[in-house]
Design goal:
Blueprint lengths: L2 E3 L5 E3 L3 E2 L5 H14 L3 E3 L7 H13 L9 E6 L6 H15 L4 E6 L36 H13 L3 E7 L3 H10 L6 E5 L7 H9 L3 E5 L23 H10 L3 H11 L3 E2 L6 H8 L8 H8 L10 H9 L8
Parallel strand pairs: 3-4, 4-5, 5-6, 6-7, 7-8, 8-9, 9-10
Antiparallel strand pairs: 1-2
Length: 325
C-alpha cells in the first residue's frame, strides 16, 4: 500500500474504504471484510448515520488480531450543525464513542456550511433540515466564522483526541483565508474528484501548500444514481476512453479510474459492498498508466459536480445554498 506523507509527517494510506451510504446492518461485516483484504484507511462521518456499526466492525478487527490500532487510519467529520466552538468537542467525542476508538487519525470539517445546532437528544445525526417534520423542511443557517470552528478543531489536537485535522469541500479562497490565521495548517482536503471533475487548479494549489488531497466519489456518478443526482449516461466507467485504457491493461474501468487518482498524487476512498470489487479497488499498485493515458483521462474533465448543495439544497431542503460559485 502506498501512502501520502502529510505536513505533520504522518502517512495517509492512498486507498481507503468510503462508508457513505453503507447500510447500518452491513457496516460492521464490511469493515471486517475490508480489513482482512488489507484495507487500513476507513473514511467515516457522523452524518453517514452508521458510525456505531462501523465501530462494532473496528472492535472486531482489533479483537480478531487482523491488525493493531496503530495500523488503522480512521477519519471522521464534523457536521454542519456543530460549527460553534462549544459544539466541536462534544461532536468529536460522540464520533469517538460510536467508533470505539480513543483518538481519530483525521477529523475534517465536512462542509463550509454552518447550520443551527440540533441537540443530540433531539436528533442524531442532525441531517440538513432543521425540522424534518415541518410543513416545509428547510436548512437553518448559522453565522459562525470558519476561524471559530477551526480554532476548536485545533484544540482537539492539543487534547489528544485527534491526530490530524482538515477540511472537506473547501475551495482555494476559503483555504487561503484559513491559512492566514491557522495555528495548525490543514493536513488534508477531501473533495469530489473523478475524471469528469478533475479540479486541476485546486489540486495543484493544495500540493503547493503541502495539503494532501483525498478524492471522494472517485468513480463519479455511481453513488448518485439512487439519489436522482446523476444519470446513467454520465457514468465515468462507461466512457470509451476509460474502457479502451482498461482493455489495454487488462484491468477493470474502476481500477483505471482509481489508478489515475492515486497516480496524480491523491488518495481515494471508493465504496463497495462486494468482496471482489473491494479486492479490485485495492489492487492499484502493480500497474501504471502512461503519460499519454494520464493526459487522455485528464482531458475528460467536464466540470461535472454531482454533490453540490447549490443544487440539492433547494430541491431537497427548500434552501438555496450555493458554496462553490
Amino acid at each position: 500500500m502506498q501512502s501520502l506523507t502529510l505536513n505533520t509527517g504522518r502517512k495517509l494510506p492512498a486507498v481507503g474504504l468510503g462508508l457513505w451510504k453503507v447500510a447500518r446492518p452491513s457496516a460492521a461485516d464490511l469493515v471486517v471484510e475490508a480489513a482482512r483484504l488489507g484495507y487500513r484507511h476507513f473514511d467515516s462521518a457522523s452524518d453517514y448515520g452508521n458510525e456505531a456499526e462501523v465501530g462494532e466492525g473496528l472492535r472486531r478487527v482489533l479483537e480478531e488480531g487482523i491488525c493493531p490500532r496503530e495500523e488503522l487510519w480512521i477519519t471522521s467529520k464534523l457536521w454542519n450543525t456543530n460549527h460553534r466552538a462549544e459544539h466541536v468537542r462534544p461532536a468529536a467525542e460522540r464520533s469517538l464513542r460510536d467508533l470505539s476508538v480513543d483518538y481519530l487519525d483525521l477529523y475534517l470539517i465536512h462542509f463550509p456550511i454552518a447550520l443551527s445546532f440540533v441537540p443530540f437528544e433531539t436528533r442524531y445525526p442532525a441531517g440538513w433540515a432543521h425540522d424534518p417534520d415541518a410543513a416545509r423542511p428547510a436548512m437553518k443557517p448559522d453565522r459562525v466564522p470558519i476561524s471559530e470552528t477551526w480554532e476548536a478543531m485545533e484544540e482537539l489536537v492539543a487534547a489528544g483526541l485527534v491526530r490530524d485535522v482538515g477540511l472537506c469541500n473547501f475551495g482555494t479562497s476559503l483555504l487561503r483565508d484559513l491559512l492566514s490565521h491557522a495555528k495548525i495548517a490543514p493536513a488534508v482536503l477531501q473533495i469530489e474528484l473523478h475524471p469528469y471533475l478533475a479540479q486541476h487548479k485546486l489540486v495543484r494549489f493544495c500540493h503547493e501548500q503541502n495539503i494532501a488531497v483525498t478524492a471522494f466519489s472517485p468513480l463519479g456518478a455511481q453513488s448518485y444514481y439512487q439519489l436522482n443526482m446523476a444519470e446513467a449516461r454520465e457514468s465515468v466507467l462507461a466512457d470509451s476512453t476509460i474502457r479502451v485504457i482498461a482493455e489495454r491493461h487488462g484491468r477493470t474501468p474502476a481500477q483505471v479510474v482509481l489508478r489515475w487518482g492515486v497516480q496524480r498524487g491523491t488518495s481515494v476512498v471508493p465504496k463497495s459492498m462486494h468482496t471482489e470489487r473491494l479486492r479490485e479497488n485495492f489492487a492499484l499498485f502493480d500497474f501504471k498508466l502512461s503519460d499519454e493515458e494520464m493526459r487522455l483521462i485528464e482531458a475528460m474533465d467536464r466540470g461535472r459536480r454531482f454533490n453540490d448543495p447549490g443544487d440539492f439544497g433547494e430541491s431537497a431542503f427548500n434552501t438555496f445554498f450555493p458554496i462553490y460559485e
